[in-house]
Inverse folding.
């Protein structure tokens, strides 16, 4: 059971929008930056969002991040079939002195 | 091109040891916190360990504490993970990852392709 809670799966049609939530606590999300990663099987995870809502160069603005209190959200607009992947939130847990990832959310683009 | 390349994975018996290496290139390795992250078959990402730029601060997941040792050689631009007393649940792809900056909560912006570790008799 992960310290950071994500829905196991989400789905939406091509062109639509989807959001993925990540719920934590004051010791992790509440007082640390959140990052989001896209992971396709057999490949290296890819950073999508850092510092809660910033995009690395090369990441399209279809991807967005937000944080409120002890929860964070990844938004993806204009869904494409190529967006089908597993998505993970990540942060530091100050009480545990450990890095943490959410359990992951599988995105299906119908 | 900024790159991380892991090596050293393989098949090992329960109770055995293995040392993973991660070779960094095209960036100033000394300036960055480095990390190990793993993914067991059919499971999600799990943070394993982090080491600060000068090895002053080291952190481990509870699941590996006392069995794994992270280290780095800045002169060789290399990161290591010594894994002892290996168990079946250590079976995973192990990724080397760079932290964006100097904060413990900084995102992992560069990842290697991973090296597979299988613990089985």
């Amino acid at each position: 059971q992960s310290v950071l809670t994500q829905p196991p799966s989400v789905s939406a049609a091509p062109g639509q929008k989807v959001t993925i939530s990540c719920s934590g606590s004051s010791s992790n999300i509440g007082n640390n930056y959140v990052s989001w990663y896209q992971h396709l099987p057999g490949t290296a995870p890819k950073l999508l969002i850092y510092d809660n809502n910033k995009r690395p160069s090369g990441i399209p603005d279809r991807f967005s991040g937000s944080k409120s209190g002890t929860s964070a959200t990844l938004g993806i607009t204009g869904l494409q079939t190529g967006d089908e992947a597993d998505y993970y939130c990540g942060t530091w847990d100050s009480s545990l002195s450990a890095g943490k990832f959410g359990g992951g959310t599988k995105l299906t683009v119908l | 091109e900024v790159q991380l390349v892991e090596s050293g994975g393989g098949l090992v018996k329960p109770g055995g040891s293995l040392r993973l290496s991660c070779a960094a290139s095209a960036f100033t390795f000394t300036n960055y916190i480095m990390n190990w992250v793993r993914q067991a078959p059919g499971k999600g990402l799990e943070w394993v360990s982090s080491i600060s730029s000068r090895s002053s601060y080291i952190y481990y997941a509870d699941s590996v504490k006392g069995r794994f040792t992270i280290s780095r050689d800045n002169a060789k631009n290399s990161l290591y993970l010594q894994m002892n007393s290996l168990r079946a649940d250590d079976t995973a792809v192990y990724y080397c990852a760079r932290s964006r900056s100097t904060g413990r909560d900084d995102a992992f912006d560069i990842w290697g392709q991973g090296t597979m570790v299988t613990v089985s008799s």
Remarks:
- Strands of chain A lie at 9-12, 18-23, 35-39, 46-49, 63-68, 71-76, 85-93, 98-101, 105-109.
- Residues 8 and 69 of chain A are 22 Å apart (CA to CA).
- Chain A touches chain B through 29 residues (CB under 8 Å).
- The radius of gyration of chain A is 13 Å.
